[in-house]
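Schema walk-through. Below, the input block comes first and the output block second. Nothing else is stored per chain. Lengths vary across the set, and this one has 220 residues.
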Amino acid sequence: MNAVAAKTPGPGRPKDLEKRAAILQAAKQLFPQNGFEGTSMDMIAATAGVSKLTVYSHFTDKESLFGEAVREKCAEQMPDALFDVDVSGPLREQLTAIARAFFALATSSESIALNRLLTAGAGSSAKLAQIFWEAGPQRVQRDFANFLAREVEAGQLEIDDVPRAASQFFCLLKGELHARQLCGCSGATFQPGEVDRHIAATVDLFIRAYATKGQAAVSR
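--- output ---
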């Protein structure tokens, strides 16, 4: 009897993980939809199908929940495995995979909504903007900078200022297409071919700027 009991998982643990996942899913839906101020912990609890007490048992306050929701959204579309370096594989393919994932994340309806939310409340939500930056863009840029640093060590790239190069890559990727979305232009719906050409041109420019001579020739 004791041996059986010892092998039995602690009660409620899988259920707790399911509730946490449901809370985060609700947060990822409601924050972009209603804004930070317009989303209450009561709303999140109701959407997740849990009590407000359960929400607070997983997240101390709404700000920490917001930050975790941003982190999880980024991790879904740009997981750690995306930044694994394969020095035996084509550099262009690795950069293109990262570029596609980042562009999809940056131009998603949730990201655009959050960008507009933070821009509209720039004066009153500096703390919220900092939470967003650290949980999302900063984390992604740091992971990419680490990727670039390992490529430099492997002799694939020549970069003096790796953090700046990482920032340049993502700024180039956003480009005019992302700016049109933020402005709400009517023509901001992209055709797949347009996105493909934009990503290919960005990767090509980055490789010509930073790849070693041998690697640049191989990547053409």
